Amino acid sequence: MTVASGKVIFRRQGVAIVRNAIGLVLLLLLAIAVWGAATAKAENAAVQSDTDIVANLGMLQGDEEGLTPAYLAKPTMRIQAAIMYLRLKGLEQAALAYKGTDNFEDASQVGDSNKTIMAYLKAHPELGWAGTGNNKFDPLAVISAQQYYKVMLEALGYKQDADFAYDDVIAFAGKLGLHRAAGAASFHNADIATATVEALQTAVKGGKKLAETLAEAGSLDAAKAAALTYPRIELQTSVTASAYGTFMTDSKGMSLYFFAKDPADPNACQAACLANWPVFYAEQLQVPAALNAVSFGVLTRADGTKQTTYNGWPLYYFVKDKAPGDVNGEASGKVWYLAKPYSVTFAAYGTLGNFLVDGSGRTLYYFDKDLSGVSACSGQCLTNWPAFYAETPNVPAGLAASDFGTLIRPDGTPQTTYRGFPLYYFAKDTKAGMTTGQAVNNVWYVIDPAKFHGAMSMPMPATEPKPTDQPQPAATGSAHTVYMENYAFSESVITVSVGDTVTFTNKDEDAMHNAVAVDGSFSTRLLAAGESATITLTKAGEYDYYCEPHKPFMKAKIIVK
Q1: Which of 108, 179, 214, 293 has its CB 3.0 to 4.6 Å from that of 220, i.e. a possible disulfide?
Q2: What does pTM read for this prediction?
């Protein structure tokens, strides 16, 4: 919506772009291009964002350029909320055809069509738009989430002071399932898109869903409204652990995950791995306005099954998540992470361990000739090693956003730094999953966050030495084995004797496990698939223990007699 020469203009554009910072939008578009080359079997998905849906239905029409990021980032004004109310009630055309001339005193602040809207509202006080007092409407005032949710409630047939009190708007709306934009600190046009989709999917008081009601009245194209019935990906915060921030879930609130080994091979999770991490797939999909519909695709896996992808990353569930908001898979084995629009994240494949990649899985590098805050790469070097830049340091668990910064290069362009050191791509890495820049000229390296401190060459060994457990007393008793499989200890309780040994063996191919006594009396290292660690129990007692990465659900007990 643009105000020009006193006229507020709304114009429809069929394809909408989500509200994002321009830098992040460009990053996501780069992600799609990179993964398009990397996943030859990827397909387009039938996906519509909230902005696509409301644009196609004519509910939100934008300014002269349509639903641009700039438009969607603008605060919502009172006149726009009034127009949205009339559209949701199927009354917009009647309002535009109104011929009455009595109007609010401040109608001159808007253009002719919106003056007609205001006159119609003044002539129909039963609609609840009587103005702000003193015969004024205040059409350009910015509204809040509470005010827009009140608009939607009244469009659904609920009346203030009869069905709800104004102070309870958000809570009352939540009981009806209206909540997706209710937490917006400042309400913007992108929030209108998300909230309006919610309203259309909600039943009118005592009747059918609003979209059905409007379609039957001829105010809505029923065929285009079909997208309102698609399965949905939500952005929400865990009900049990808000520290995880905002992440993707399915429409029931079950968390979705990325697998760090997928950039090199999107079929890396197979067999027992897939039993623990089932794929997420929806043939048709709706997504929030904050996500770009073109970021989603479909991967046909090697076995012929299909899987939804985001920025090329296949999406998974975790079988140990039992309730909406559970995030038990987060950082599992240091290779599974909650699905988010990360700007930087981890990959893990080959012999390199965990290392930094961009949001599309493309490898990031460190130049050993750089100093903290200074890039020594320019000219042809920069052609071969393009600078990486992400405006927002959105990172997964295990990375600290505070470790990322920005330096300004001599030509004025920004470059993202990690712990002060510039980050680069390698031009010969033509797709996600490639690491051909590793150890080039013994000065270019991938970055393992656990080891990286900068200002020194850091070649990765072909195989990393495995840490050893602390020496154990010589075994004098019986030997016992506990397997770590399917994210559980094979024996929930075992009884042994003083001097017996217990060997823990990890059989989960997709996760690392350990065994840690609650009282601190023993602790093994993290074990990869096929690895074992042995402890000797020298004192009688009961020892509750757990796997540190999966502590919420992976627990057991040893009784020593």
Answers
A1: 214
A2: 0.78
